[in-house]
Amino acid sequence: xxxxxxxxxxxxxxxxxxxxxxxxxxxxxxxxxxxxxxxxxxxxxxxxxxxxxxxxxxxxxxxxxxxxxxxxxxxxxxxxxxxxxxxxxxxxxxxxxxxxxxxxxxxxxxxxxxxxxxxxxxxx
Length: 124
Fold this sequence. Notes:
Layout: E1 3-7, E2 10-13, E3 18-25, E4 32-39, E5 46-51, E6 58-60, E7 68-73, E8 78-83, E9 92-100, E10 113-114, E11 118-123
Parallel strand pairs: 2-11
Antiparallel strand pairs: 1-3, 3-8, 4-5, 4-9, 5-6, 7-8, 9-10, 9-11
């Protein structure tokens, strides 16, 4: 089992940047595929990005491709989401998630553990 704690959210102007972090407790962090999801008010939670266990393979939603970068540091049990060129439509609660297995997934049902979320607000 793994516990996930997100940090780094906040208020930023459009065009700005934020870096989210997700710290995992427990052993065997490098056996989990890690993902970021987000949920805006009144909308369903949606996939943002995912990274393979070793960090070499990444996958992004079309809406963030070219602006967001997911990475991980297995020595620190941490996954990151660097968000650049932020837009008001990026405003949401961002969740970190861990998936057992090897395949990088993009659906909520594939992920086994979730953090509590961190709020990102982008003002226009």
